[in-house]
Amino acid sequence: MKTKSLFATLVTATFLSGGAAFAGPEVVSGPGALPECFAPWDEDTSFLQWSAKEGPYKIAVVNGFVGNTWRIQMVKTAKAFAEDPTIKDKISEFKVVSTGTDAPAQLGAIEDFINQGYDAIITIAVAPTGFDRVIRLADKNDVVLVPFDNVLDTDKVMQVNEDQLAMGKKWGEFILGELHEMGIDSGKLLEVRGLAGNSVDRDRSLAINEAIAADGGDWEVVSVVGNWDDGTTQKVVADAIAVHGQFDAVIGQGGSNGIVQALQDSGHPWVPVAGESENGFRKAIAEHSADGLKGISIGQSPGLVAVAMKAAVSALEGNVMPQLISVPLPVATYKGLEDGKNYWSELPDNFFTVNEFPPCDVNISGPAIMAESEEDMK
């Protein structure tokens, strides 16, 4: 009898501990915490809840590629926000690493932080798939994994992003609208893509080209890869102009300063340009819009990392959270640019202008960001 009882107890304990270990977050009903900050993506978004942990927390940021100004500013922003009074006391240990474009290296770094006992890991995924193993490991160890920006094709983790499809559509429709106002309904468009192989580049390009296809005009689209980097973009745009001649408009996912510089250096006429939220790009639009640079600037803010960090802490505290958190698109066009408000003449051209999210109490100053380095914190 005692043997049977002990066996039954062991089986029950093993079952319960195994179930708890691999449970991960529970799918629950909404609404979630701070909906003005952590807005659900749409009405079909599910809600997740982790068991509350006592703080302060060990948090790591595992970046991939760090070879452009956006990623560098993102790393600096993460470091600056970790020292912000609104969150500093909730973090006991903070690390940042960049692993490059190699997916196994990034997965290995995430796994290492999980095994070191970190409570939350924020990441920009190198690829939208292939993370199943580390998601299971995170769930087993009760770790909150939060992809942002380049997110994953899964609903098993909490993620933070802006709507990349909406961004691409808005870029495409703006450019076509400007061309139609100029009486142009056919011609050549230059698309400057981002870093190949991730969800942001994929979704933006898909939406841009869907907008062009839906327009009904006779458009030839030339695509080049600029890696969201000013220098790379300047080269590929200059090469495209040399090979294909004049374009009627340019739609760039990033590296927007490089687009402007290539147009200037080649003597290409100013044309409508869609791009990111680089300070230099907005300066150029403000200066040259009357000459034909009818621009739209939509910011995929490096400050998303701060919202992701804040979401991770909220989840660790046991709050109900949307599985996919939507951050509104910050849009500025040539009709509404104002120095000191949505661009700054005294700040560097490669500074990304959108870093404040008032509903989230995330307000990181430019000087605080620029004072940090992009080096790993191991």
From TrEMBL:
<dbReference type="InterPro" id="IPR025997">
    <property type="entry name" value="SBP_2_dom"/>
</dbReference>
<dbReference type="GO" id="GO:0030246">
    <property type="term" value="F:carbohydrate binding"/>
</dbReference>
<comment type="similarity">
    <text>Belongs to the bacterial solute-binding protein 2 family.</text>
</comment>
<protein>
    <submittedName>
        <fullName>Monosaccharide ABC transporter substrate-binding protein, CUT2 family</fullName>
    </submittedName>
</protein>
<dbReference type="InterPro" id="IPR028082">
    <property type="entry name" value="Peripla_BP_I"/>
</dbReference>
<feature type="domain" description="Periplasmic binding protein">
    <location>
        <begin position="59"/>
        <end position="318"/>
    </location>
</feature>
<feature type="signal peptide">
    <location>
        <begin position="1"/>
        <end position="23"/>
    </location>
</feature>
<dbReference type="Pfam" id="PF13407">
    <property type="entry name" value="Peripla_BP_4"/>
</dbReference>
<dbReference type="GO" id="GO:0030313">
    <property type="term" value="C:cell envelope"/>
</dbReference>
<keyword id="KW-0732">Signal</keyword>
